[in-house]
């Protein structure tokens, strides 16, 4: 048996032991099935690139390389390319099948130039090297790998690279031209007629790369960079993101033997960056006394995570520092200031407020940060951070800024957020009573605001800002943010966030010494509690707010607290007490001409009258409030009035009228994006159908209600109380 047959037989044995078909192995190593079949049967000669790839895929280091046939000596009419050699392919490579195929397609296309770009630590070089190993055999003159050191101690200039490459291509040193232009011409001439894959790793910018691009069409170029190199028009661009969750967990598991759950948790702590995952695995291997739980505990502390991701030879902070070196002063300042924003992302106007710059200048700087993969762009008008890059920016760049600059920047951001939230709240509930809030000059103007859509996109950021404002002593902005969030939270029924922000806000108002803000925040906290069904907790808030309002002589606040307390009494079953306080508040609202609050109070009186057996009178009141809300353009309030009307008509036995009110409520609730009120209307329609004996129809409506909002509380929602328990 000859050497070729021995290589092929061993490849077949290893492949079958791994449970792979020829097709499966071909997909992994990117050689054709037919070629592999010929190698296994000894009909074609294997090569070292194939051997290395198969050994990596079949976990058989050295087993095939040792069986490669010796190549006979050949005479060449031109000097051989003295290949610099590819680095070894990274073991346990995973999760990049689509990107590998995209690179292969790019290199096989006309032009044959591909740029792989991405943030530091995302695995650009590993991908490029793996792809080059798979493609090397297709190039008669082999492969050259050159580290351009674009983000290291100093980028190599093109003239020096031409000198180096000409030497590798066999040109004697004394024949390399001294003039840079002549040297470039000699480089292009030396590549004429050759078939070569050139891997340019770690490029700084397009200017460094462009002189190295061959004119020879049989040559191909694969470039990696931490910048996008979008100025290379002739290239195809493959942007590398973090690993998919399963691939990141699989990488950690392969390196450590951890089970799937532990591996997934650690991979998430590492932001699914391959470098971070590998460093974490190395840390675990270096400490036999640790288990995965200990590693996870160390990585769980966000402020200490970057320090833990350092194995003595590799450091995630060092990788990020190389990326940050390319920034100018203005970009570096903005990069640090962005870390002050505690939310997940921000728009151009919020970034402008942070920077204290005009939007156009901020947009230019953000574009440069995005080009350097130091910020992400989840949508066309929004920017964010990878979690670990945020930590890096906070620990290094932001920390280098003067404390006064950081404080002023956050103050501008908080003021901008409050002003934007106030404007959106005015769109959402135009008749709501609001305090007078002042803002500093020079804040950028927000984009045109759609109340619901803006709050839906921004509320997580506003919640984070509310907390951070309290922590940093911006107490007024803390309670103001909570105040302007309340309307959206009531619509969306985000009770946990509503309660949390108002507890922060109440503490901030107390520290600011603003008794009105304390009273109002406490009353609004009570609304959240009663809306969630915590009647006793809500009543305590209302009593506290009432004491504060009376102490400062605020009659509007006092009567509002009375009206709120009336709702709690009603839900507790104390209807006479609720009716008394509702009427007291109503008299005040009518005196001062507050039509919205008066109509809301009448709606409360209508619900109490239903509970007292006066459903006909309640229906008249609900219809009157509906007319007021429609006149004032208060769509969400109108939906609540319609549901109240449907509830009253249901109790009068006027099922057709009840059904009509609920149907209109459901349609208008969906239009104004109130899932809670839509579900309430569907529940009411189910109750009406059940009262008519239409069991199947009732079940359909109740199922739709559960699908829309399964959390309707029977303490607060009457329709849920009368719905059969097992429906």
TrEMBL record:
Coiled coil: none annotated. Residues 11-64 form the HTH cro/C1-type domain. SMART domains: HTH_XRE, TPR. This is Helix-turn-helix domain-containing protein. It comes from Amycolatopsis heterodermiae.
């Amino acid at each position: 048996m000859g050497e070729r047959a021995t290589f092929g037989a061993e490849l077949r044995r290893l492949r079958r032991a791994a449970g792979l078909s020829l097709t499966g192995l071909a997909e992994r190593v990117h050689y054709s099935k037919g070629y592999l079949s010929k190698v296994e049967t000894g009909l074609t000669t294997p090569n070292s690139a194939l051997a290395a790839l198969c050994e990596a895929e079949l976990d058989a280091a050295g087993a095939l390389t040792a069986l490669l046939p010796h190549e006979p000596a050949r005479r060449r009419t031109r000097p051989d390319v003295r290949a610099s050699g590819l680095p070894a392919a990274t073991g346990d490579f995973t999760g990049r099948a689509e990107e590998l195929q995209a690179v292969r397609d790019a290199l096989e296309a006309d032009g044959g130039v591909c740029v792989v770009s991405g943030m530091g630590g995302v695995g650009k070089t590993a991908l490029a090297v793996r792809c080059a190993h798979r493609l090397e055999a297709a190039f008669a003159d082999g492969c050259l790998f050159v580290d351009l050191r674009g983000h290291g101690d100093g980028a190599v200039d093109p003239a020096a690279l031409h000198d180096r490459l000409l030497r590798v291509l066999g040109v004697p040193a004394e024949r390399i031209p001294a003039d840079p232009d002549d040297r470039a011409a000699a480089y292009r001439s030396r590549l004429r007629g050759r078939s070569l894959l050139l891997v340019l790793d770690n490029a700084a910018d397009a200017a460094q790369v462009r002189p190295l691009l061959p004119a020879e069409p049989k040559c191909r170029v694969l470039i990696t960079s931490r910048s996008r190199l979008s100025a290379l028009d002739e290239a195809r661009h493959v942007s590398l993101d973090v690993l998919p969750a399963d691939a990141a967990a699989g990488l950690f598991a392969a390196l450590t033997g951890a089970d799937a759950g532990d591996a997934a948790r650690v991979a998430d702590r590492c932001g699914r960056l391959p470098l971070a995952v590998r460093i974490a695995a190395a840390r675990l291997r270096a400490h036999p006394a640790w288990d995965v739980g200990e590693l996870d505990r160390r990585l769980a502390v966000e402020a200490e995570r970057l320090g833990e991701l350092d194995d003595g030879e590799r450091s995630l902070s060092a990788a990020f520092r190389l990326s940050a070196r390319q920034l100018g002063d203005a970009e570096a300042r903005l990069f640090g200031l962005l870390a002050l924003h505690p939310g997940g992302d921000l728009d151009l106007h919020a970034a402008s407020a942070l920077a204290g710059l005009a939007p156009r200048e901020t947009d230019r700087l953000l574009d440069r940060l995005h080009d350097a993969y130091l910020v992400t762009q989840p949508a066309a008008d929004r920017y964010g951070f990878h979690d670990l890059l945020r930590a890096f920016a906070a620990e290094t760049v932001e920390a280098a800024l003067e404390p006064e600059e950081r404080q002023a920047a956050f103050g501008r951001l908080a003021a901008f957020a409050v002003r934007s939230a106030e404007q959106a709240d005015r769109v959402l509930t135009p008749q709501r009573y609001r305090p007078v809030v002042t803002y500093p000059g020079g804040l950028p103007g927000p984009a045109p605001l759609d109340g619901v859509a803006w709050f839906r996109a921004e509320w997580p950021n506003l919640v984070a800002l509310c907390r951070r404002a309290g922590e940093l002593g911006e107490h007024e902005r803390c309670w103001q943010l909570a105040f302007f969030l309340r309307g959206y939270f009531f619509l969306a029924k985000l009770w946990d966030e509503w309660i949390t922000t108002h507890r922060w806000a109440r503490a901030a108002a107390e520290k600011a010494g603003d008794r009105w803000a304390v009273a109002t925040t406490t009353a609004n906290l009570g609304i959240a509690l009663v809306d969630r069904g915590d009647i006793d907790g809500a009543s305590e808030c209302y009593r506290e707010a009432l004491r504060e309002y009376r102490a400062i002589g605020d009659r509007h606040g006092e009567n509002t607290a009375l009206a709120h307390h009336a709702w709690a009494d009603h839900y507790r079953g104390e209807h006479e007490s609720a009716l008394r306080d509702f009427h007291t508040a109503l008299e005040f609202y009518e005196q001062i001409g507050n039509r919205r609050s008066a109509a809301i109070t009448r709606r409360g009186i209508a619900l109490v009258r239903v509970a007292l057996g006066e459903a006909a009178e309640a229906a008249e009141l609900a219809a009157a409030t509906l007319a007021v809300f429609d006149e004032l353009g208060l769509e969400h309030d109108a939906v609540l009035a319609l549901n109240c009307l449907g509830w009253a008509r249901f109790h009068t036995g006027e099922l057709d009228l009840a059904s009509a009110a609920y149907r209109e409520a459901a349609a208008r609730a969906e239009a104004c994006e109130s899932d809670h009120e839509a579900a309430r209307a569907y529940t009411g329609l189910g109750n009406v159908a059940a009262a008519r004996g239409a069991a199947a129809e009732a079940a359909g409506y109740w199922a739709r209600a559960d699908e829309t909002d399964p959390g309707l509380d029977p303490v607060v929602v009457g329709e849920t109380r009368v719905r059969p328990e097992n429906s």
